[in-house]
């Protein structure tokens, strides 16, 4: 909860001010044992080289294999924990407006809205197996204007959020965000400026997402820069959402398109390993406009 997070933050700040910490942060102190652990294989290999007894060499070689496996397992857990912490921070900073605010075509009488408010499942983002693949700011082309949006790409869906300035600061969440070393620099800047990410549309599952590149010739004629399109389809292959996105540069655009395309390929393969690339792309037609 927020209160526990704040208590932990204040406790960490108090501990880091202690002279025994020598001005090191908690993250620095936690890294030290891991750095020593990774040196063990080098030490054991030197022992193996200098050993003359074959029995001893075999024993040391077995130990080296176990240590290498332990280090690989530990590195995997550290990466998972870092990703999990990032997703938790994102969840604290992303707001889910009611459906009648996200979709102007939806009408709900004022007297019924309190009973129908969206109750986003707690821990929606923080599934133990979910991985954060990419995130960042883009422009969303609208009617005569470009909205600042923040995209979050997971290994199973893409989420588009609208960047909004809030009138009243939520001090606890923002303080946690500002002190977090793992926060994305763009998101860190937004938090510092008192911004939040409001969900713009429903999450797009990767097996329902089509990606279209817009050729520079057509983009320039339409007044677009470094643009591509994300299409949300339902199970019947009908388009239910279409988003024209603009990146800050050609390199940024290619990075986003590559990340999304790779995520779709991996997700599709994991869902149906027997499906061939031809079958998976048959409904996608051309990826170029």
What does it look like?
The chain folds into 2 domains: 1-16 and 23-91; 96-169 and 179-271, Pleckstrin-homology domain (PH domain)/Phosphotyrosine-binding domain (PTB) (PH-domain like, Roll). Helices cover 47% and strands 20% of the residues. It is built from 11 helices and 9 strands. Strands 1, 2, 3, 4, 5, 6, 7, 8 and 9 form a 9-stranded mixed β-sheet that branches. The chain is extended. The protein starts with a helix and ends in an 8-residue tail after the last helix.
Short structural description:
The chain has 289 residues and is α+β, with helices and mostly antiparallel strands. It has helices spanning 2-16, 26-37, 40-50, 54-93, 99-102, 113-116, 171-179, 185-192, 216-221, 250-271, 277-281, and strands spanning 94-95, 132-141, 146-154, 157-165, 195-199, 204-205, 209-213, 227-233, 239-246. It has two domains: 1-16 and 23-91; 96-169 and 179-271, PH-domain like.
Keywords for this entry:
single chain; 289 residues; alpha+beta; PH-domain like; 2 domains; extended; guanyl-nucleotide exchange factor activity; DH_dom; DBL_dom_sf; PH-like_dom_sf
